[in-house]
Amino acid sequence: MLGKIHLLEGDLDKAIEIYKKAVEFSPENTELLTTLGLLYLQLGIYQKAFEHLGNALTYDPTNYKAILAAGSMMQTHGDFDVALTKYRIVACAVPESPPLWNNIGMCFFGKKKYVAAISCLKRANYLAPFDWKILYNLGLVHLTLQQYASAFHFLSAAISFQPKVGELYMLLAVALTNLDDTENARRAYAEAVRLDKCNPLVNLNYAVLLYNQGEERGALAQYQEMEKKVNLLKDSSSLEFDPEMVEMAQKLGAALQVGEALVWTKPVKDPKSKQRTTSTSKAASFQQPLGSNQALGQAMSSAAAYRKLPSGVGGTSQLTKPPSLPLEPEPTVEAQPTEASAQIREK
Q1: Per DSSP, what are the bridge partners of residue 275?
Q2: What is the C-alpha separation between 253 and 95, in angstroms, rounded?
Q3: Closest to 232 (Cα-Cα) out of 197, 267, 205
Q4: Residue 128 confidence (pLDDT) above 80
Q5: Which 3 state secondary structure label does DSSP give 298?
Q6: DSSP character string of 97-117
Q7: Do strands 297-298 and 275-276 pair parallel, antiparallel, or not at all (unpaired)?
Q8: pTM over 0.85
Q9: Which end of the chain is more exposed for a tag (fewer CB within 10 A), N or C?
């Protein structure tokens, strides 16, 4: 109970210390082991998360929360088929679990089976209509399919439940741009920039929109903000950037005559999130428009049972960075991305 109180206060470090002591006293308590594994998962400490979830499954092989979390971790690292095998076991125990169907849907999304992804995500949405991460994922899949009106519908619904996530406004702006509603797209980008202080993609997309509207000074300002965020990310983590994002930034840099050599050294896929881009430009020169904005989103997954853990367990209810694949929706969240992600930030 003390650990839950720390979680409700948002103090994950103290909560983890309490749960570690609890596991020392009760090393075979699967509930404690699963909760501790989910907390490590939320912090991105995958080795310890896998260790505690594995111990929980050793004592109780049918513990569906631990199985769902383990599948979410596999999904985060791109092992979609293995994750689906785990989810089949969970489906026998809790066939109406929203996090389960959310994660299955994003597995299909990762395998590029978009119709199956939408079918599973809509089932998850039916079971949990107020879960913003499921709505986020639905918007992301529809953006990938270039079904912009449907994407707008789901992203607007997600924003109504979670108005503090900048990436939602960015994806909404991408949908609005493709629906030829430039004025509202700019408003959405402005809100995304205000809310999101660490995702360089927000500034990149905004800069592309401004450049295509002929506002080179504003585009340059957003481009410079993007470079600052990239430098901060490079200094604070080993994060690698999506190659399409790097390519678009280089084209925009050339168009703005600030040089093509960016702060990126090696364009590689970001391993922490299943990111997708829709409608990137085919060519970039100073005279030609750059094309529609990139819709680079992060699939979100859920790691454990829906609304079974206190807020923050197994997911990013308070997002301090873009949601990533394996995390869980709010109150105990259902990830990214992997929630996830998404984030996705799978939950």
Answers
A1: 298
A2: 49
A3: 197
A4: yes
A5: strand
A6: -HHHHHHHHHHHHHTT-HHHH
A7: antiparallel
A8: no
A9: N
**Which residues are CB-contacts of 10 (< 8 A; sequence separation ≥ 6)?**
312, 318
pLDDT digits (tens, 9 = 90+) for 26-59: 988 999 999 999 999 888 888 889 899 989 988 9
Q: Which residues contact 176 (CB under 8 A, 6 or more apart)?
A: 152, 182, 184, 185, 188
Tokens encoding 289? 């428009």
- Residue in this structure with the two tokens 């819709």, named with its chain if needed: 295
136 vs 339: CA distance, rounded Å: 9
Nearest by Cα to 333 from 1, 7, 5, 2 = 7
Nearest to 258 by CA among 293, 227, 214: 227
For residue 343, give both structure tokens: 């984030």
Q: Phi first, then psi: what are they for 275, rounded to 5°?
A: -105, 150
Residue 314 C-alpha from the chain's centroid: 14
> How many whole angstroms separate alpha carbon 23 and alpha carbon 111?
37
What DSSP string runs through 6-35?
Answer: HHHTT-HHHHHHHHHHHHHH-TT-HHHHHH
Q: Which of 26, 35, 105 shows the shortest CA–CA distance to 69?
A: 35
